[in-house]
Amino acid sequence: MQRSGWLLILVLIAAIGIGGFAWYRFEGESPGLQAPEAELVIGKNGMKLDLRASDARSGLRSLHVAVAQPAGEKVLFDESYPGNLLSGGTRSEQATTVQLDPATLGPLTGPATLSISVRDWSWRGAFSGNETRRDLPLRVDLEPPRIEVTSGISGITYVRQGGSGSVAYRVSEPTARDGVRVGTAEFRGFPRKGGGANERIALFAFPTGIDAKSPVRVFAEDAAGNSSEAGWAVVVQPYVQPEGKVQLTQTFLEQVVPRLAPGGAAGDVAFQEVNTRVRAENEKKIRELAANTAPELLFTGNLHQLANSKVTSRFGEKRIYMVDGREISRAVHFGYDLASLSGAPVTATAAGRVLYAGDLGIYGNCVVLDHGLGLASLYGHLSRIDVEPDARVEGDQRLGLTGATGLAGGDHLHFATLIGNTYVDPIEWWDAKWVADHVAPNLNPQPIAQ
Ligand SMILES: [Zn+2]
Fold first, then answer.
1. Fewer CB within 10 A of the terminal residue: the chain, N end or C end?
2. What value does the mean pLDDT take over residues 64-89?
3. Residue 1 pLDDT > 90, yes or no?
4. Mean pLDDT across the stretch 296-325?
């Protein structure tokens, strides 16, 4: 072959090589960006913005964060990363946190936009690289929501410690979180059916374990984290905790306790473990289940006590567990024990949705129902379960049969009601007049009396 022929081949190989390299460096894969995707609302405490940029192909070239508004642009973050157009960049990932403060942002003069831009070392964009860009509307909101309590013509709410209450209120703007605070316990607010956009209702409990003088307040927090509270006249009837001694029999310690104790252990120590650690685990699970509530009441009227049942143990009783005259453990009984015939049908206390149907430790075969607005009911120690999780049930629908599963000495129904995280005495909810007086007026807007 002639010399010129070889040269042509070499030039062709070089051209293909350079072309291939150029093609490789001309990649069009946009850098990755993990950042918020919706409008940002900044409150007085500001906001931490976590960003993560990545580019595996050509490497990161720059990360730029700025706020643009009619008065001009303010750069909040600007970094360039090492690299060159020939070999690309060396950094494939970069994480950073940008602090957005109302003070450093200054007064916003008009619509503002937070722009995040990430570039890589590709040859695209006339050698300025591929860009991933996000423009987010940005708002500063230093105004806390205003709250107006609208419930109760007389203006006074009477609540029993261990019992329930309800309140209707209006907020001045959409909230991220609102409800009622009783001491440190919080109860969620929900839209008030048939009310305006910012009309809210909350069911709440006054827990037994706290000071009866603990304040009861409506709270509201907006998306920017601005929060406010409002009180109203609440009269609390303090709770007197009844005490009861429970004598544990050898049969109970040797036959019931091993069902629940780790390793099937029997005796006093095993009972103590079940009555503290296992109980606490079960209660934690119940509260997680109960959080899954509907934003409206799923029943009308009141709850119903199990038909033909006799109360054998009441709500809130402090139980002292005894073996041979010695105290070995304590617990508060946050439900009612209802005795009926052995294997009696257990019916729903009211219409609702099944949150749980299965084994629940000390409660044995257990059904938990949601009734909406944070109100839930629990049925323990069943010998048989007839409903499936997530099913809608009617009031009085059969859920199963009574039994003695879990930590039970004999056939009975353990029935309990909760609002949010807190057990409440069902006796109020069983009373049609109490519901009519204490809850119903807040469920629907009442016509103004003429
Ligand atoms: Zn019980």
1. C
2. 88
3. no
4. 92
- Is residue 346 over pLDDT 60? yes
Tokens matching residue 2: 């002639």
CA of 402 to the centre of ligand 1 (A): 12
β-strands 40-42, 131-140 pairing: parallel
Contact 177, 157 (CB under 8 A): no
Output 377 or 124, whichever has higher pLDDT.
377
- Ligand 1 centroid – CA 162 distance (Å): 16
Tell me the CA–centroid distance for residue 362 and ligand 1, in Å: 10
pLDDT higher than threshold 90 for residue 395: yes
Distance 409 CA to ligand 1 centre (A): 10
Assign 446 a pLDDT band (cuts: 50, 70, 90).
low
Secondary structure of 426-449 as H, E, C letters: HHHHCCHHHHHHHCHHHHCCCCCC
* Centroid of ligand 1 to alpha carbon of 333 (angstroms): 6
What residue ranges define each of the domains in the chain, with the CATH number in brackets?
Answer: 29-140 (2.60.40.2550), 147-239 (2.60.40), 243-438 (2.70.70.10)
Mean pLDDT rounded to a whole number for the chain: 91
Asked if 445 and 194 touch (Cβ cutoff 8 Å), the reply is yes
Distance 311 CA to ligand 1 centre (A): 10
423: CA distance to ligand 1 center in Å?
13
pLDDT over 90 at 171, yes or no? yes
**In 3-state terms, what secondary structure has residue 386?**
coil
Residue at 93: amino acid letter: E
Give φ, ψ of 116 to 5 degrees: -120, 125
SS3 165: strand
Contacts of 330 (CB under 8 A, 6+ apart): 318, 319, 320, 321
pLDDT given for residue 64 in this prediction: 94
**DSSP state, 29?**
P
